[in-house]
Amino acid sequence: MTRGDTEHFARPSAARFIEGRGHYVADIVAAGALHAVIVRSVEAHADITVDVAAAKAAPGVLLVLSGPDIAPLFEPQPIVWNVAGQRRSGLRALAVGRVRYVGEPVAAVVAESPEAARHAATLVRVDYAPRPVVLSPDAALREDAPRLYEDWPDNIVASAAWDGGDVDAAFAGADTVVAGSYVSGRVAAHSLEARAVLAVYDAAWDGVTVHTSTQAPHQVREAIAHCLRVPEHRVRVMVPDVGGAFGSKSCPYAEEILLAHISLRLRAAVRWIETRAEAFVAAVPGRDETVDLALAMAADGRILGLKSLITLDKGAEPYATSVGAAWAGAMMMTGAYRIENVHVGVRVVVTNKTPTGAYRGYGTPEVNFALERALDEAARRLGIDPAELRRRNFVPAEAMPCPSATGLLLLDSGRYAEMLDLALKAFDYDRQIVLASEARAAGQAAGIGMAFYVEPTNLGPSALCGMIGIRSGGFDVANVRMEPGGQVVVFTGQTPMGQGVETVLQSICADELSIPVEDVTVIHGDTQACSYTGYGSGGSRGTGIGGSAVMIAAGKVREKVLAIGAHLLEADPAEVELTQGGVQVRGDGARRVSVAEVARAAYLAHSLPTGTEPGIEARATFDPASLAITYGVALARVEVDNETGLVDVQHIVFGHDCGRQVNPVLVEGQVVGGIVQGIGAALYEELRYDARGQPQVLSMREYDIPFAADVPRIDLVHLETPSPFFPNGAKGVGESGVIPIPAAIANAIRDALGDRAADIVNRLPIRPENLIKY
């Protein structure tokens, strides 16, 4: 990439973050703001009585709330993903009579200062009558298991199954069957900024403005209005800078609802800032899923059939993103491969742990780990090179768009074999096989591994969302307004959270209008000013769906600029073009008016084409016809220390195709960031609990993440196959890096240690103390 290219794709907002000028919820000044502290359960499962009398009498305290106080006032929190037959818990913002996980909110204390609120919180007395604790899906599914909800017949939130072809016949005719249980451990999103809420009462309109660190401002507004039984126009949600999210901030939380209620009730401003210890028990974690998988293989390496059962440990509540991760995993179970005979089952169970929610990849990394581990074992048993086995089973490019056997997935476009070959060449695959073999012969535990992946992105369309139970639509709305000076303002419901979506929307708009990027401003994070988005910023949909809406709206603005420009030039509209910030007659550079002159004429309205309204502004809605499927492959070289079990990831080649790359610099950043998170999930990160359901991770001292020294050399390989379903051809890229890395590293460790590690690498994270045993 040339210097000029780098400057063109620079991120205008980056400088203020580098200089420490980011503006977060904690930085917002609200005169006389009160301070809230949430009292949380210290038991995993118990009946409770809460006594707040002493806390109410403490100095500086204005309000103390417990579950019974708000139960008559609050509706249960809405469930984001609501599939047929799913059970509900009736969750309200504070526990009533019973707690089901450590960290569950039981009371809220509001005081004049943070110190007074913290002191009063220590005076809230909670008496616990312990109940039996259920900590794993196996325990939850036992016939005699204690039920978390007495009105449920068991601990299953929801279950379903999908079939395609004749899977029993496929297994009966198989030459080899590979089966295993593949576990993805529970991980924390661990954003740089934890959650935070500031609710400010406004007497002018008798409403509340909620400043919150979220990915989905419109969904937060809807939840607050629903739970508090107030009209949505009395709730305004504003999102300042978000210090990372990774899915954990995609759902409405109890604290947002509570603080909105307190602000309206006291007619005051009130602030709550989550501590890091709270974040480990109160913010939704991800993964915690087991995939039982069996592959029926022919002797020539063809996949004849697949059976799988996805079991998601939902934690104590199904609210958040509900069963979505399991359902999304079922959709992606067959990956990039043509498998005609399939059975996929899913079940979601509750346990006495913090409820899980969305996390980067949202169900896809878990099933990819299972499928790609099983394929590697199949290749070993059949004596076929792992790359060749995958190549023999790819859905060919000429067969796309191609539905899966279950009908859950449509592979829209892709060149899988070409991508694999490019990555193998970049990795110098044949030579790496020889070098690893020579190292093992010399006593070193060296190995290489690979994993292919497909990723559902650009979440939509709305009809699909409705079919699978998502409470939101899959569309996006953009408003584009040209100001009298020729500059442009884009209003979007998308939320920047470190991924750079504001920069992408700027460049899409600027390209469509042939104006400099710096002449485009993107306004976001304000439900009162910005366009409604159906799902928020999640599902890798910012560029493909949000960007397409901006592109269409900017195209409408472009047409009006051309029409007015032609009128000013006394030319036929068919004879003019928009280029380099001006409208000119084709082939006659002397007959030209600037965009600024056109904009000024539009707002003066002294002389406009007949039937043209003054001003220049356009609105566009984009609802995609299908998902866009990003795909790629990861190859990894590792070495395992025989004495300590420590894994050294030495080199990664990552090939990917996210359609048209609107901003290659941001694409690279997203992919590399995801790769590092994938390394963390593979080797380091895990939220652990003891036998009483007590979390063993409450600070960064107990939660291992990769350091800079743990990041290997990373080489990227790109293809660009535009999605046929999106005007800008873009597919999502925000979650790509994290999906195949755990499987690639696990396969490399398996290669390094041989058959003795075949089972131990099926559980993430792969800990050194476990590798020592082998």
From TrEMBL:
Its cofactor is Mo-molybdopterin cytosine dinucleotide. Its EC number is 1.2.7.4. The keyword Oxidoreductase applies. Residues 19-132 form the Aldehyde oxidase/xanthine dehydrogenase a/b hammerhead domain. It holds the Pfam family MoCoBD_2. One of its GO terms (molecular function) is iron ion binding. Keywords: Molybdenum, Oxidoreductase. Gene3D superfamilies: Aldehyde oxidase/xanthine dehydrogenase, a/b hammerhead (3.90.1170.50), Aldehyde oxidase/xanthine dehydrogenase, molybdopterin binding domain (3.30.365.10). InterPro entries: Ald_Oxase/Xan_DH_a/b (IPR000674), Ald_Oxase/Xan_DH_a/b_sf (IPR036856), Ald_Oxase/xanthine_DH-like (IPR016208), AldOxase/xan_DH_MoCoBD1 (IPR008274), AldOxase/xan_DH_MoCoBD2 (IPR046867), AldOxase/xan_DH_Mopterin-bd_sf (IPR037165). This is Carbon-monoxide dehydrogenase large subunit. It comes from Sphingosinicella soli.
